[in-house]
Specification:
Elements lengths: L4 H18 L3 E9 L3 E2 L2 E2 L6 E9 L4 E12 L2 E17 L2 E12 L7 E10 L2 E8 L8 E14 L2 E13 L13 E13 L3 E10 L14 E10 L1
Antiparallel strand pairs: 1-4, 1-14, 2-3, 4-5, 5-6, 6-7, 7-8, 8-9, 9-10, 10-11, 11-12, 12-13, 13-14
């Protein structure tokens, strides 16, 4: 992938979202900073602080899309990580929605890790459940399934308990050597609390843990358990 391509693409998307805003669609942006940037329990910032910029668009008929840009560090290589997503939410019954969509992952300087996932899920007021499927997870030659459940339970005004549990499973005709003896599955957990800061910001403190195994090649240096402080603001 040419240098700076993810950042340039995000700027293009920002311009498109601005156009959608003028067309009376719901467009927003978020900025998150955290003491250790993690995805599915694994650090993609080499156990260092990180930041992420997000753009989101909500259209009519339940359609939505968005993008996020972060810095990823893989061993001796690092660069931008761009995620593009789009999908649709449909009402199933009062208080319960269904959704389906697609996520495209693109990595600067490590394009062999590029991959695509399709997902489907259920959304409720205090929980959501999703399953993701990829034909070539992180470009390692394995199909994958990832299931997750996320919880958010109000405790007091502006304070909520948050939780997450996920299971990643890789599938391959031949067992890659780097999996032995870790296994083809990996679990991750997250538990903590979130505090609302004003009208558009939130602080979250959470304990995060992940097991070994699964279809990864770059996670050996990632701490298996840690505590993360994250601040997110919307604008």
């Amino acid at each position: 992938m040419p240098p700076a391509r993810p950042a340039r693409l995000l700027l293009l998307l920002a311009a498109l979202f601005a156009g959608a805003s003028l067309a009376r669609a719901d467009v927003g942006a978020t900025l998150s900073v955290q003491t250790d940037a993690r995805d599915r329990g694994m650090s993609y910032s080499a156990n260092r602080p990180g930041a992420q910029l997000g753009l989101a668009w909500d259209g009519s008929g339940g359609w939505y899309g968005g993008a996020s840009l972060a810095q990823a560090r893989f061993a001796d290589r690092h660069g931008a990580w761009l995620r593009l997503y789009g999908g649709r939410v449909v009402g199933l019954q009062p208080g319960l929605d269904g959704e389906a969509g697609l996520v495209v992952h693109r990595f600067e300087n490590v394009s062999r890790y590029d991959y695509v996932e399709a997902y489907a899920g259920l959304l409720a007021e205090r929980w959501n459940l999703r399953v993701y499927a990829s034909p070539d997870y992180y470009g390692v030659g394995q199909r994958s399934l990832y299931g997750e459940v996320n919880l958010r339970w109000p405790l007091a005004a502006g304070i909520a308990a948050v939780g997450h549990a996920g299971l990643l499973r890789g599938f391959s005709a031949q067992r890659p050597a780097y999996l032995d003896p870790r296994g083809a599955s990996r679990t991750d957990l997250r538990a903590g609390a979130a505090w609302q800061l004003g009208a558009s910001s939130e602080m979250q403190l959470a304990w995060v843990a992940a097991s070994r195994g699964g279809p990864y090649t770059w996670t050996d240096a990632s701490r298996r358990r840690t505590v993360i402080l994250q601040l997110t603001t919307a604008f």
